[in-house]
TrEMBL record:
It comes from Suricata suricatta (Meerkat). This is PMS1 homolog 1, mismatch repair system component. GO terms for molecular function: ATP binding; ATP hydrolysis activity; ATP-dependent DNA damage sensor activity; mismatched DNA binding. Pfam families: HATPase_c_3. One of its GO terms (cellular component) is MutLalpha complex. Belongs to the DNA mismatch repair MutL/HexB family. The gene is PMS1. It comes from the Eukaryota.
Length: 257
C-alpha cells in the first residue's frame, strides 16, 4: 500500500464521502468487492448508529500494510492518477477508511491466506492503530464502526424521525440488491438488529441473479434481447408491457440504445 503523490491527491480527493449510514456501507462493501470477496455480511444495530459491521472473505490486509490502511491517501489500488485509465476497482482515493475513522470508532480484523491467525486492530480518529490483538476469524476482513456521528450532532439530527431511519435501511437494501445483480456469484446477507432484512445466495449468471432478487413473477414478465456490435454483445431485459407498447417484437426500443 502506498501514499498517493500530492498532485494526485489534489486532483482526486473528495471532501464529502461519509455523510450517511448508507455511505459507510457503500464504501465498506466496495472495499470487500475490490478484495475479491464472494461472501459479504452487513450487520447494523440501531439503524447503524450503534454499530455497522461489514465482514468479507476477501484477500485480507497484510500486517505490513495495517499501519497505513486507514491513513488518508494510502491505497493499494493505484499509484498515481495516470492509473485511472485502467482502473478495475471501485476504490482508488484511499480516503474511505480514514474518513470513517473521523466519524466513528473503527476496528478492523483481518487475515490473509498466508497469516496463521487474524489480527484485530483498533484505530483512532485519524486512522492510526491504538492497539492490536490476535483474533479467531478466518481469511478476509471485518470492519466495525461504532457510535457513528456521535461527534457530529447535526448529522445524527437528520435521522431524528423513524421514517428517515427506515428510508436509510431501504436505501442500503437497494444498494446491496444492485451489487447482488451485478455479481451473481456473490453471497450477501443484510441484518438489522439481529433480523435478516435481505439475503442472496450465489447463483450462476445475471439472469439467475435477477430471478433471485426480483422474483419469478417479475422475471416471467421480462423479454430478453441480444444486441451484437463488433466484438461486444449487449444483453437486455425489458418488461413485456414496455416492449410491446412500441412494437410487438420490441425492436424499436433497441434503436434508442
Ligand atoms: P481505497 O479503497 O480508495 O483504496 P480505502 O480507505 O477504502 O481506500 O481503503 C484503503 C486500503 O485498505 C485499500 O486500498 C485496501 O488496500 C485496504 N482495504 C480496505 N478494506 C479492505 C478489505 N475489506 N479487504 C482488503 N483490503 C482492504
Ligand atoms: Mg475504498
Amino acid at each position: 500500500m502506498k501514499q498517493l503523490p500530492a498532485a494526485t491527491v489534489r486532483l482526486l480527493s473528495s471532501s464529502q464521502i461519509i455523510t450517511s449510514v448508507v455511505s459507510v456501507v457503500k464504501e465498506l462493501v466496495e472495499n470487500s468487492l475490490d478484495a475479491g470477496a464472494t461472501s459479504i455480511d452487513v450487520k447494523l444495530e440501531n439503524y447503524g448508529f450503534d454499530k455497522i459491521e461489514v465482514r468479507d472473505n476477501g484477500e485480507g490486509i497484510r500486517a505490513t500494510d495495517a499501519p497505513v490502511m486507514a491513513i488518508k491517501y494510502y491505497t493499494s489500488k493505484i499509484n498515481s492518477h495516470e492509473d485511472l485509465e485502467n482502473l478495475t476497482t471501485y476504490g482508488f482515493r484511499g480516503e474511505a477508511l480514514g474518513s470513517i475513522c473521523c466519524v466513528a470508532e473503527v476496528s478492523i480484523t483481518t487475515r490473509t491466506a498466508s497469516d496463521i491467525f487474524s489480527t484485530q486492530y483498533v484505530l483512532d480518529g485519524s486512522g492510526h492503530i491504538i492497539s492490536q490483538k490476535p483474533s479467531h476469524l478466518g481469511q478476509g476482513t471485518t470492519v466495525t464502526a461504532l457510535r457513528l456521528f456521535k461527534n457530529i450532532p447535526v448529522r445524527k439530527q437528520f435521522y431524528s424521525t423513524a421514517k428517515k431511519c427506515k428510508d436509510e435501511i431501504k436505501k442500503i437494501q437497494d444498494l446491496l440488491i444492485s451489487y447482488g445483480i451485478l455479481k451473481p456469484d456473490l453471497r450477501i446477507v443484510f441484518i438489522h438488529n439481529k433480523a435478516v432484512i435481505w439475503q442472496k445466495t450465489r447463483v450462476s449468471d445475471h439472469k439467475m441473479a435477477l430471478m433471485s432478487v426480483l422474483g419469478t413473477a417479475v422475471m416471467g414478465n421480462m423479454e430478453s434481447f441480444q444486441y451484437h456490435c463488433e466484438e461486444s454483445q449487449l444483453s437486455m431485459l425489458f418488461p413485456v408491457t414496455l416492449a410491446s407498447r412500441s412494437t410487438n417484437s420490441g425492436h424499436s426500443i433497441l434503436k434508442h440504445f
